[in-house]
Write a structure and sequence with these properties.
This protein is of the alpha/beta class and 417 residues long. It has 15 helices and 26 strands. The protein binds ligand EPZ.
């Protein structure tokens, strides 16, 4: 299995470009299923999760062709409504295909998505909402057998908690439904806005994306369009942390300021100076970071849960104690055990983690536990004295384009072996 070998202690400086957002590209690829004709998606990131989505699209009968960061999807003929377990298991977020397949074909059969490292990852909100739109869903032997003998119909969907994936599933299914769907307590993440903008460019009629109430007026057909995926705000947060822990200075190109603004106060409290210029961001880090007293993750525009692990790596070497409260997932401190192997001093009690900053981390063999947890190990290794070897890096490749090349280009010493 491939590993990353990181020789820490080097200051990062230079510029890097942020790739397209994984968490926007995935629902956009699902949305292509709804469209007649060809869909062209630009700035589509080269990630293993995106490759998994391609495999699902091809299995359904779509043509999928990638030319660098451009992907052309032809959903003219969908040959099946079933996603096999092997493909469902590869990526938990493949549940977002359910709404699109059901809306396009009137049927969908797929297995419960794999749990993942962050806890059970329930899909109850997805299923309850799709049932409101008229989908009948039978769950047995780990399979979801869904059908709607008539076209789906618009409904009032009220989410008890905000869910990115469930909001996306409803937007996808409702776009071709008869009548109007109103989502209450919709997720407000930027990825929701990207999906709405794409669907509207294909002929949908979606209003209010980015707000808590989203209205989708069903249309008869959607026609594939040409669209550019927004930059990945979590990749940006990750590379900001890389500059922060190495006392470095980086220019991040292709950043949407309002997508990254929720993490600015935390980085400024840590002593970093941030300057937005156009769609770019310059981060200058102090020689040693200050602690972050109370980092609470929340739904957008709160501090993003996906940036918690990499920001925790910053706290591990900061001066003083930092506290993290993880309000979104019940088990998202998986990186703590591995950070401790590098010398980090972290205490976890339920959804709270207290980090006592240390002068120096020291390189050691560690193992990625999940996507963002793996990224946090790379960040900590950049600051650690000596060599850190990181195993199970397939987790990292799910969400970052060739991370080691990106970091080496700004002065890091990382090898993939
Ligand atoms: C999306 O996951 C992202 N993934 C996650 O990023 C991100 O952490 C998460 O949103 C929160 O922002 C993609 O977009 C592919 P949720 P999603 O539904 O949609 C609970 C990464 O690292 N819930 O907003 O699965 C759930 O357990 C990944 O890129 C239910 O209870 O997240 C969680 O506690 C990790 N029932 C909370 O809601 C449901 O039916 C928020 O989850 C659905 C969710």
């Amino acid at each position: 299995m491939a590993k990353l070998l990181v020789n820490g202690g080097r200051r990062l400086s230079g510029e890097l470009s942020i790739h397209g957002a994984k968490n926007s590209a995935l629902p956009l690829l699902a949305a292509a299923i709804l469209c007649q004709g060809k869909t062209v998606i630009h700035n589509c990131p080269d990630l293993s999760d995106v490759d998994a989505a391609f495999r699902i699209l091809r299995h359904l009968g779509c043509g999928v062709r990638r030319e660098n960061d451009m992907v052309v999807i032809d959903a003219e003929s969908i040959e099946t409504s079933e996603i096999p377990t092997t493909l469902m298991r590869e990526m938990r977020s493949s549940i977002v295909f359910l709404g699109a397949i059901a809306a396009r074909t009137g049927r969908a059969k797929l297995s419960f998505p794999g749990g993942c490292e962050l806890g059970p990852r329930p899909i109850d909100l997805h299923l309850a909402a799709l049932k409101k739109l008229g989908l009948t869903i039978e769950e047995d032997h780990g399979f979801l057998d869904c059908r709607s003998d008539v076209p789906l119909r618009g409904a009032d969907v009220i989410f008890p908690i905000s869910s990115v994936g469930a909001t996306e599933n409803v937007m996808l299914a409702a776009s071709l439904a008869k009548g109007t769907t109103t989502i209450h307590n919709a997720a407000r993440e930027p990825e929701i806005c990207d999906l709405a903008a794409f669907l509207n460019a294909c002929g949908a009629d979606i209003r209010g994306a980015g707000e808590s109430i989203v209205e989708i007026r069903g249309v008869k057909t959607l026609t594939g369009c040409e669209y550019t995926v927004m930059p990945d705000r979590i990749a940006a947060a990750t590379y900001m942390a890389a500059a922060a822990v190495t006392g470095g200075e980086l220019d991040l190109l292709n950043v949407v300021p309002e997508h990254v603004k929720p993490i600015v106060p935390v980085f400024e409290e840590a002593g970093c100076r941030l300057r937005f210029w156009g769609n770019n961001l310059t981060i200058q880090a102090p020689a040693r970071l200050s602690s972050m007293h109370h980092v609470v993750t929340g739904v957008f525009p709160g501090f993003p849960t996906d940036a918690q692990p990499t920001t925790m790596a910053m706290a591990a070497v900061a001066r003083g104690n930092s506290m993290f409260v993880e309000t979104i997932f019940e088990n998202r401190f998986k990186q703590v055990g591995e950070l401790a192997r590098l010398g980090a001093k972290i205490k976890v009690d339920g959804r709270v983690a207290v980090v006592e900053g240390v002068e120096k981390l020291s390189g050691a063999p560690v193992m990625a536990t999940d996507l963002r947890g793996g990224a946090s190990l790379v960040i900590a290794a950049l600051a650690a004295e000596g060599t850190t070897s990181i195993d199970e890096i397939h987790h990292i490749d799910r969400g970052y384009e060739r991370m080691e090349e990106t970091l080496c280009a700004v002065g890091a010493d990382i090898q993939r072996v």
